[in-house]
């Protein structure tokens, strides 16, 4: 490795050209709908590199409700701790600030102070309270956040706050992402048009520790706080909690839902007739963003949907789905288009269901039944498996034969490029 | 991948020359001591490939005691099920038979019949009962065991049974292993010389599904059955259960202890003064063999010892050790000699200790303190971390600051070769 370092660094420059995401392109800026009450402003703050957008501010209307879910990693980053504090304070959130280039993780007490200093600086510019700001960071771990550069960049962000800046915002939060990730849609609720727009970043975890999945989904609907929190719990289990690129979870992962309260609809509670419609529309945008992260997985050449059904409960279905999705052997077999079924069965076998009866299990690749009765299906022809494995998008379906619960996991394959990207020096 | 398949297959032929195990060479046959009461015979049975030893028989003296531990994978292979049956029958084990080239896993009822047929054929040749034979298989999954070739090869194995065949035996069980794995030692117990010799195979999981770790450790000591079973439980937790190459566990993993009862010592029970000495000597051989499997890990360029201490119990230390050892990001950073500490801390953070206080944790690379108080250690210099990371053998030491329990995990790095080897077609 050491002697090839220079060559790999040159090759890495070519990554954006030779290593395309799986069926994913940057969104058309015109397709990203402004959300009334949500303004976005960005800056080039030189946090780690020059000549790139690396700082984003979102200003929210006073009526806004905000809900968040965060990484379960015990080594969670300073901004995650501050976000939880500020949400718990219940004073209302009026602004978000996101920097790239530095994750402010593994930075101890000093890191907490710098995350709070960021909030304080933005609060001063916007004339709101420190507790009304949520901070987010993504980038290298264990290096001090260059707080002076963050603070110096904030006025430019505030100067260009606009409701139609979503495409710039999606770019401003990118790290090793090859393409920006954003999606938008309108729905009708009780005679009112409701807009939903979301952005996300993440491409696996990550070239030189540019870790972290961040997702922000905003709507102009009027939503009660408990309803918004119920919606994000529902959505995260069907979106960001369904994806794995390499199984490593980050110190900074965050998903935020914003309801700016500007659409003039009757406030939506969990009892409202419109509750499910809005929840499902938010979930759909979150799922599109989460899948985009997998499609842009480091070195990814294939997108796999792992559907596990027939389980006793959702938790065990998820265990099986993740065991398959995380297995380096399964992921390299997909890269090679090799219908190496034993690897999938072995992963099911070690997923942790102690009383699994493998003779009741069925395994499908798309619609091809490949295994049942504890072994290869009698109808299975290797050519059929081979045909499916050559596709860029593949569904692996496992029926556990134990119950009626189900879960879905999305993942990508492991390629040479994954190792190359992640073995490269921090530079 | 598809268009490069041919080139990769050529390159793969070179693997044995360009991709050397980490500080591991084949054992000197003269160093492998015969164990009285244990004879070994091998054959070239053409099970999957020609011109290679692929069938091994071990014949044991009637006084032998045998204990085994097996994969926890629910998709365990037919021979594993038969081994458990035959050990449970309690009729005494008189022979073992190991084939490579085919794992007889994911083969349903027919696979069980073929594993039993193998035992029956060997029992007939040795004039013992079917239940006195343990069968083992390693190789491709989900293909029918070519039982006729196995049975046809058995007479040659029996014809060349010898106590000094350990080096051949180590070769006969190899699959993608680059070097044979074997170790031997003598100890004195109560005035008697006791010999211990063991062999193992495995190199990660695995070029075209040549999965499975197998280990066989034999001593000529007289050992009571309950004592031998206590010894193997002790040993497996300090050897084969401490290793991970890629985190995938196989359908066929097995470790067997044999005490042939020929050394003339007083029978060793759990109460014997000599119990601990013999247990520790068997454990040492098992650990050497387990480490050899990691050193020969697919594409491995480095050998890492993950020591986790200061935990509340051994289980949580093991969780943390495996989280680090299994992380693709940590493994690629080691390959790159990059002291990318954030990746190790992130792995500790998601290992599953919900009440971990990261501010009490310390992280060392060899003797270099790199992190404490939730962040980078103030004394840490990147040059020190870099120096350690360039070594071929590295110790990662994590102190959790919660208690006095500890655990050790051995692993290797992830290189380009890992992906190449595992993406290659079954051939």
From TrEMBL, chains A, B:
It comes from Novimethylophilus kurashikiensis. It catalyses: N(2)-acetyl-L-ornithine + L-glutamate = N-acetyl-L-glutamate + L-ornithine; L-glutamate + acetyl-CoA = N-acetyl-L-glutamate + CoA + H(+). The record marks 138-139 as: Involved in the stabilization of negative charge on the oxyanion by the formation of the oxyanion hole. HAMAP family: ArgJ. The gene is argJ. The active site is at residue 212. It is an enzyme of class 2 (transferase). The lineage of its organism: Bacteria, Pseudomonadati, Pseudomonadota, Betaproteobacteria, Nitrosomonadales. Substrate binds at residues 175, 201, 212, 298, 422, 427. This is Arginine biosynthesis bifunctional protein ArgJ.
């Amino acid at each position: 490795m050491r002697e090839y370092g220079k060559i790999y660094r040159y090759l890495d420059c070519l990554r954006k050209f030779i290593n395309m995401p799986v069926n994913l392109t940057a969104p058309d800026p015109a397709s990203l709908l402004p959300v009334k009450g949500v303004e976005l402003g960005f800056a080039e703050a030189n946090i780690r590199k020059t000549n790139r957008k690396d700082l984003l501010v979102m200003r929210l209307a006073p009526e806004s409700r905000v809900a968040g879910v965060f990484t379960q990693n015990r080594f969670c980053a300073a901004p995650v701790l501050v976000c939880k504090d500020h949400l718990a304070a219940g004073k209302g959130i009026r602004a978000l600030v996101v920097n790239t280039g530095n994750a402010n993780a593994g930075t101890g007490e000093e890191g907490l102070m710098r995350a709070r200093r960021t909030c304080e600086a933005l609060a001063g510019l916007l004339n709101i309270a420190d507790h009304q700001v949520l901070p987010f960071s993504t980038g290298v771990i264990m290096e001090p956040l260059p707080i002076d550069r963050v603070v110096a960049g904030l006025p430019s962000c505030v100067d260009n706050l606009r409701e139609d800046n979503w495409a710039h915002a999606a770019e401003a939060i990118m790290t090793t992402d090859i393409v920006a990730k954003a999606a938008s849609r309108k729905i009708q609720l009780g005679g009112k048009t409701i807009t939903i727009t979301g952005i996300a970043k993440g491409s696996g975890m990550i070239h030189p520790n540019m870790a972290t999945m961040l997702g922000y989904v905003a709507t102009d609907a009027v939503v009660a706080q408990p309803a918004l929190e119920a919606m994000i719990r529902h959505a995260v289990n069907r979106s960001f909690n369904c994806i794995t690129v390499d199984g490593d979870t980050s110190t900074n992962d965050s998903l935020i839902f914003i309801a700016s309260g500007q659409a003039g609809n009757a406030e939506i509670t969990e009892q409202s007739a419109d509750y499910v419609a809005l929840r499902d529309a938010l979930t759909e945008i979150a799922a599109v963003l989460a899948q985009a992260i997998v499609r842009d997985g480091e070195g990814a050449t294939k997108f796999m949907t792992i559907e596990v059904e027939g389980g006793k409960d959702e938790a065990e279905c998820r265990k099986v789905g993740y065991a398959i999705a995380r297995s380096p052997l399964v992921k390299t077999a997909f890269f090679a288009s090799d219908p190496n079924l034993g690897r999938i069965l072995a992963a099911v076998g070690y997923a942790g269901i102690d009383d699994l009866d493998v003779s009741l299990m069925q395994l499908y690749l798309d619609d091809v039944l490949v295994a049942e009765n504890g072994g290869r299906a009698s109808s299975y022809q290797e050519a059929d498996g081979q045909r499916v494995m050559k596709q860029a998008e593949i569904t692996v379906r496992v029926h556990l034969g134990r119950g009626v619960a189900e879960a879905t996991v999305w993942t990508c394959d492991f390629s040479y490029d994954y190792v190359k990207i992640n073995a490269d020096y921090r530079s």
